[in-house]
Amino acid sequence: MKRVKIFLAACFAFVFVSCFDTVEEVEIRADGTGVLAMKTDLSKLVDVIKGFSTPEDMKKDGMDKPVDTTMFMKSYVDTASDIPADKKALFRDGKVHLQMDIDKGVLKMDMNFPFATAAQLQDLYANLNSATGGMEGMFGNLGGKKMDGGEPKGPGQISSVYDVVVSDGVYSRKLNKARYEEFSKTIKLDELKEVSTMLGEMKYTTSVKLPRPVKSFTNTKAIVSSDKNVVRLTVNLLDVFEHPELLELGITY
User: How many CB atoms lie within 10 A of CB 70?
Assistant: First the structure.
């Protein structure tokens, strides 16, 4: 289990400071409860890992055998001494599924968080990318490694530059220009383009499942399901770094 913890911490480092294919799925039920899921596919890293690691290194790091495990957040929130109690309560019922098979080129991590109210969903969005009070800080001490002073290790995810507002009949994700300006100072677009050339196109997908049919939506690139209960938006991450408004989305239902 210790090797799983250490590797999970490493995966979180990649997820929160890098750009990989990500699917964000939110389901909002009629009573206001629901689930927020973040699914990240890091399989493109496998060839890079193989290129820089010998079989002996892989075995030493515990990566020579397949891993398929689910880790429940309630088992770890109490180990994060620098996370406020309200944040621990927010993440406590969540779970993380890690799937790794280097031989088959598979490396995926899914995070799943239930919420009881629209306010809790907004808090989840606000805190998922917070290095000092969110998931990165919480998992920074897995395997005995703590973050230095609780400060961010990298630029974080592009999703952190948006404000998400949810109420009965409305889902809104709008760009926070001040936050984006700060975020843009931490990224090196030329380097990201080089990474994209090596790993291929990287996409960010948002899927919003609603309890009632959609009345209207703002992003012309979004697609509505045949039953009009799901809105799905897929964008190229490199395009979003330069034009963050591409990921904005407003829905009434």
Answer: 11
Q: Is residue 163 a contact partner of residue 173, using CB atoms and an 8 Å limit?
A: yes
**Tell me, what amino acid is at 138?**
M
Which residues, in sequence order, are CB contacts of 78 under 8 Å at separation 6+? 88
pLDDT single digits (tens) 10-64? 554 445 444 578 899 999 999 999 999 999 998 887 887 777 778 887 787 777 8
Q: Could you give the 3-state DSSP secondary structure of residue 127?
A: helix
Which one, of 40, 37, 16, lies nearest residue 207 by Cα?
37
Mean pLDDT, rounded, for 162-166: 94
What ranges do the domains of the chain cover?
2-252
Q: Which of 86, 114, 127 is nearest to 28 (CA)?
A: 114
Name the E strands within the chain: 21-28, 34-41, 67-72, 95-101, 106-115, 162-167, 170-175, 203-209, 216-217, 223-224, 230-236, 249-252
Phi, psi dihedrals of residue 154, rounded to the nearest 5°: -165, -165
By percentage, how much of the chain surpasses pLDDT 90? 46
What is the pTM for the complete model shown?
0.80
**How would you list the strands of the sheet with 249-252, edge to edge?**
162-167, 170-175, 249-252, 216-217
Which helix (H) or strand (E) covers residue 64, if one does? none
Q: Which position has the higher pLDDT, 190 or 39?
A: 39
